[in-house]
Design goal:
- The chain is built from four helices and no strands.
- Helix 3 (73-89) packs antiparallel against helix 4 (94-112).
- It has 114 residues and is mainly α.
- Helix content is 74%, strand content 0%.
- It is flat.
Length: 114
Amino acid sequence: MSALGWFAPYALLLLVGFLPNEVWRMLGVVFARGLDEDAEIIVLARAVATAILTGVVGKLVVFAPGALAGVPLWVRLGASALGLIAFALFRRSVLAGVVVATAAIMAGMLAFAS
C-alpha cells in the first residue's frame, strides 16, 4: 500500500486532473484583462464554449454512463427540463438549475432505477 493510503487516487486526480487545468484557467484570466467583452472574438469564443458544454451535457443525458444508465431516458430528460426551468425562474442562476436538476435526477433514480 502506498504512503498516501486511501488518499492516493484523490491526490492523483488533483495532480493530473485539476492542477494542469487550473494553470490554463489562471493564464486565461491574466491574459484576458483589458479585453472588451463585446469584441467579436470573445463573443465567438463564448458561443463555442457554450456549444461544447451543451453537447457534453446532452450526450451525458441521452447516452448515460454507469449508474445513470439505469434511470429511464424520460426521467433524465425531465430532470434536465426542470433544471432549465429553475435556471430561468431564478434569474439565470446556474446554481439553482444544477440543484434542481440534481434533486430531480436523484428522485428519479430512487423511484425508477432498475
